[in-house]
């Protein structure tokens, strides 16, 4: 697939002249450096932690882990590589960093994968999980001309919705979670990190032949000024019912306030937009799939806005006696 789509002058070595490092985190992804990239001509020097070791002595094999991403970023810069690749333990998730060591994960990874998936699928729908940013929606809908379908957390949820949409006649080439799970329709709806990275490497090579850097593709993506996630514990036994009652209470508050606006495309928990000068952004409060936890995601377009948004929500949640707000208090320095 790489040979065909890059179509280099040296057809059998389409990655000749490219320097790509792999960080397998001592999971099982080390094969990608030795059995995929090197035979196709890539320089893989600087790759690290390729040997499987279930004790994971260097860092967690996890593209969402800060230490892991810092490690692959540093290795990419040190090797002066064109791209750094990182896999999770069993290679169903992946992420990457550009030549400057800047992370291409979460919303940036979704944006890049969407560019690739929408080639030949103009106006197609991209299914993501619920915690994706407003900037990503703008990028998919306006810059790429696609349709962002924000769904629930859980990679099976987004993939099942992708399959459902395609079965109903909606052109949906990609389902992707911010965690790095990505399923392309042309790869049988499998969440396959190696396939995702292969598509990205093909695009890297195509761009490189034109003298362009991969990261320029997502330069129009608007990143939030601030973002955080807080996890609030539910203290009662019937946590799902209680969590749903909290969500209903916040929805009622949002409907009653003029400075809060409920999202019209929300399909999990309660997502509210705020547009005041000191807290322009949004929050999403939802119920964990399995645990007595309510994850709270907040993004702001202004510095200091995340704390201002959290403060407003905190005032509403104080009446929820079975919700542990200690994490919010600590965040707010209360």
Please report which band the strand proportion falls in: under 5%, 5-15%, 15-25%, 25-35%, 35-45% or over 45%.
15-25%
Strand segment tally:
13
The CATH class of the largest domain, by name, is Alpha Beta
Mean pLDDT: 96
**N-end to C-end Cα span:** 56 Å
CATH architecture of the largest domain: 3-Layer(aba) Sandwich
The value of Rg in angstroms is: 21 Å
- Indicate how many domains the architecture comprises: 3
The strands making up the biggest β-sheet line up spatially as 9-13-12-11-10
Q: Any idea of the CATH topology of the largest domain?
A: Alpha-D-Glucose-1,6-Bisphosphate, Chain A, domain 3
Order of helices and strands: HEHHEEEHEHEHEEHEHEEEEHH
What does this protein look like?
There is one protein chain. The protein has 334 residues and is α+β, with helices and mostly antiparallel strands. Helix 5 (134-143) links the parallel strand 5 and strand 6 (147-150). It contains 10 helices and 13 strands. It has a 5-stranded antiparallel beta sheet. A 4-stranded mixed beta sheet has the order 1-2-3-4, sandwiched between helices. The longest helix is centred in the last third of the chain and has 18 residues, at 239-256. It folds into 3 domains: 2-104 and 198-214, Alpha-D-Glucose-1,6-Bisphosphate, Chain A, domain 3 (3-Layer(aba) Sandwich), CATH 3.40.120; 108-187, Alpha-D-Glucose-1,6-Bisphosphate, subunit A, domain 3 (Alpha-D-Glucose-1,6-Bisphosphate, Chain A, domain 3, 3-Layer(aba) Sandwich); 226-332, 2-Layer Sandwich (TATA-Binding Protein), CATH 3.30.310.50. Helix 9 (305-317) runs antiparallel to helix 10 (326-332).
């Amino acid at each position: 697939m790489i040979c065909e789509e890059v179509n280099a002058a040296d057809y059998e070595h389409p990655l000749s002249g490219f320097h790509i490092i792999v960080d397998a985190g001592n999971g099982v992804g080390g094969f990608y450096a030795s059995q995929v990239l090197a035979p196709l001509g890539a320089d893989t020097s600087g790759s690290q932690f390729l040997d499987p070791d279930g004790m994971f002595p260097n860092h967690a094999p996890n593209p969402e882990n800060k230490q892991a991403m810092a490690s692959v970023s540093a290795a990419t810069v040190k090797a002066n590589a064109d791209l750094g690749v990182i896999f999770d333990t069993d290679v169903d998730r992946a992420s990457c960093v550009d030549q400057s060591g800047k992370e291409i994960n979460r919303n940036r990874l979704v944006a890049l994968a969407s560019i690739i998936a929408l080639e030949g699928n103009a106006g197609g729908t991209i299914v993501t999980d619920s915690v994706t940013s407003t900037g990503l929606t703008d990028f998919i809908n306006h810059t790429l001309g696609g349709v962002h379908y924000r769904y629930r957390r859980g990679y099976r949820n987004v993939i099942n919705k992708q399959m459902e949409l395609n079965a109903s006649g909606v052109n949906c080439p990609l389902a992707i979670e911010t965690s790095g799970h990505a399923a392309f329709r042309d790869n049988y709806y499998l969440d396959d990190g190696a396939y995702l990275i292969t598509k990205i490497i093909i695009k890297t090579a195509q761009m490189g032949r034109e003298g362009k850097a991969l990261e320029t593709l997502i330069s129009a993506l608007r990143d939030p000024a601030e973002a955080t996630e807080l996890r609030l514990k539910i203290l009662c036994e019937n946590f799902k019912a209680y969590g749903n009652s909290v969500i209903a209470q916040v929805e009622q508050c949002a409907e009653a306030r003029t400075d809060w606006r409920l999202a019209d495309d929300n399909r999990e928990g309660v997502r509210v937009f705020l547009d005041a000068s000191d807290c322009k952004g949004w929050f999403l409060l939802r119920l964990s799939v399995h645990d007595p936890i309510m994850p709270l995601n907040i993004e702001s377009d202004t510095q200091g806005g995340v704390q201002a948004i959290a403060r407003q929500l905190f005032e509403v949640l104080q009446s929820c006696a079975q919700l542990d707000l200690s994490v919010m208090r600590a965040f707010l320095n209360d």
